[in-house]
Design a protein that fits this description.
Blueprint lengths: L1 H4 L7 E5 L1 E8 L2 E2 L3 E3 L3 E6 L2 E6 L5 E11 L2 E6 L4 E5 L4 E8 L6 E8 L2 E4 L11
Length: about 130
């Protein structure tokens, strides 16, 4: 399971979830939660991650691990978004559309029940079979 792998930092590999939710965020609180249908993947390398769903190409972001950030192990991505490891949902929180700082974001994707799909890394053009 992912819980042990997410203890400190995300291990390299391809992660899968079909339990993903889109949320609007106001004053740091998710005010809505809408399930997104389909399979979703996060391909993790030591230098970044690629987010995609349903065999699409996806978008790769370089990242920097910043350690604990408001009680969550956190990565800041090159586009200003933020990825937080979330053991309480066995997954991650992906915050995006920040206003002026790394505290206030308008949108959130919650990847629940994220499982390691494959340990293969480095091939960002691969297709899921």
């Amino acid at each position: 399971m992912l819980t042990g792998q997410l203890f400190a930092q995300m291990d390299e590999g391809l992660y899968h979830s079909n339990d993903v939710y889109y949320c609007n965020v106001v004053d740091g609180i998710a005010i809505s939660e809408e399930k997104i249908d389909g399979d979703h993947y996060i391909q993790v390398s030591k230098n970044g991650a690629r987010f995609y769903s349903n065999n699409r190409l996806g978008l790769y972001h370089s990242w920097m691990y910043v350690g604990d950030f408001i009680d969550y192990e956190t990565y800041i991505l090159t586009d200003g978004s933020k990825l937080c490891l979330a053991p309480e949902v066995n997954g991650v929180y992906y915050f995006f559309e920040n206003t002026y700082d790394h505290y206030e974001y308008k949108k959130l994707l919650i990847y629940k029940n994220l499982n390691l799909y494959s340990v293969e890394t480095g091939n960002y053009l691969m297709e899921i079979k």
